[in-house]
Amino acid sequence: SVALVYVASSPDDDPSDDEPVAELNYGGVYFFLYPDILHLQGKTGELIDAQVSAFFAGSALDALSSFVVDARVRASLQPAEWDQRVGVQGDKPWFMRTRRAEVLELLDRISAAVGKARQADVGVLFEGE
Q: Which of 18, 34, 75, 109 is most buried, taking the most CB atoms under 10 A from its CB?
């Protein structure tokens, strides 16, 4: 599962003709960011998730920008690679190898999307599947 990230004018936009600015895979990077995602949801009511879409515009763009800053600080404290818990298989914890560079690249792409959205006075859409 993946959420595609677009700069869009409304949550109802069909951005399928546009190139996504980022892809958020439902794996180690997502689960590393999950505490930050829940904090962002608390501020905006929008949940970044592979199943549903989330749209950030206006003051929610500021919250998304803060999300990037906070997550970047946490990511910078991680080793180059680590085993991120992503769930449970049977009764055993399930981990995925996660790379700090992948987290930081995604955050850079989201940050660039926020900048473009602000310039165009639109928003950032995380389109779930």
A: 75
